[in-house]
Amino acid sequence: MHIPVMREAVLAGLAVRPDGRYLDGTFGRGGHARAILERLGARGRLLLMDRDPAAVAYALREFAGDPRVAVRHANFAELAEWEEVRPGLDGVLLDLGVSSPQLDDPRRGFSFLADAPLDMRMDPAAGESAADFLARADEREIAGVLWRYGEERLSRRIARAIVTRRTESPIRTTGELAELVERAIGRRERNKHPATRTFQAFRIHVNDELGSLERALPAAAAALKPGGRLAVISFHSLEDRIVKRFIRGDAAAPAHRGLPTPVEAGPPLRAIGRPQRPDEAEIACNPRARSAVLRIAEKRETEAPAC
Ligand SMILES: C[S@@+](CC[C@H](N)C(=O)[O-])C[C@H]1O[C@@H](n2cnc3c(N)ncnc32)[C@H](O)[C@@H]1O
């Protein structure tokens, strides 16, 4: 099962209204969704989305009988394409990253704790698996991914080891990759497997996690009604930086994608409170919460045009 992170803080941040319309863009196993649903009345609506077909199958099994719920299999970057979103939303939740069932199922290839096919895709029918990426990409590209998404100082050494190994045999399993990284860079940190950053980097790359987030934030802000709330839980600094900058209005549109938002329009959101982290009691019960950061923001009331 997946234990929802900072459940009460998320609910308080979303300020759930019984007749509101909410989107949980990262359903997972529905820990947050269930809590939101408990606060909705008969006229409320909860839209559930996940890019993982296993999560969507679970959502349909658990919630499809509830007339207040709609379920969609999609990347949250495409939330604006869902007609259920068009009437406007009172709240959007994005609880980023992977769920415990994804990490714990060795067949998904996210973890080096068990030897399994090296896949790492949240949607196994979309895009390229980690094994295919490692078979195709050149050394520079692999090193770049390790550097950018894993903040791995020894990125070049690991990339070289990967390219050398694959001339002998393809790298097809999590165990092969973990062992190769350990041989290339040795054990550096006492409580951390040397392949931790490598696995994070390839997972972020294979799923285009940062690109999805960059596209989702403006779409969520546009879909929110004035006064509607956005809650985002990030699990590493790369994600949190994107969320922080977007809320501040520094990165309304990333420089490499499309045009910047006109300055006079101002940022669409304002931050509510400071970023929140789980307390020690929560981390003790759920160690996966330890790196979480929750940010809440509210859609500004639109001002009447001065004419
Ligand atoms: C941390 S879990 C969410 C857990 C959930 N809040 C709960 O309480 O059960 C993240 C989930 O978001 C999904 N996900 C991650 N990125 C996504 C994206 N870009 N679009 C849709 N779903 C995504 C993953 O497949 C995973 O199921």
Short synopsis of the structure:
With about 300 residues, the protein is an alpha/beta fold. The chain has helices at about 5-15, 30-40, 55-65, 100-105, 130-135, 140-150, 155-170, 175-185, 195-205, 210-225, 235-250, 280-285; strands at about 20-25, 45-50, 70-75, 90-95, 225-235, 270, 295-300.
Question: How would you portray this structure in words?
Answer:
The protein has 307 residues and is an alpha/beta fold. It folds into two domains: 7-100 and 209-299, Vaccinia Virus protein VP39 (Rossmann fold, 3-Layer(aba) Sandwich); 123-206, DNA polymerase, domain 1. Helices cover 40% and strands 14% of the residues. It contains twelve helices and seven strands. The chain has helices spanning 7-14, 31-39, 53-63, 100-104, 130-136, 139-150, 155-168, 174-185, 196-206, 209-223, 237-248, 280-285, and strands spanning 21-24, 45-50, 69-73, 89-95, 224-234, 269-271, 293-299. Strands 3-2-1-4-5-7-6 form a seven-stranded mixed sheet, with helices on both faces. α2 links the parallel β1 and β2. α6 packs across α7 (155-168) and α6 (139-150) crosses α9 (196-206). The longest helix has 15 residues, at 209-223. The termini are far apart. S-adenosylmethionine binds next to α2 and β2.
CATH C-level category of the largest domain:
Alpha Beta
**Overall shape:** globular
CATH names the topology of the largest domain as: Rossmann fold
Structure annotation, total helices = 12
In whole angstroms, the N-to-C terminal distance is: 56 Å
Structural class: alpha/beta
- What is the makeup of the main sheet? 7 strands, mixed
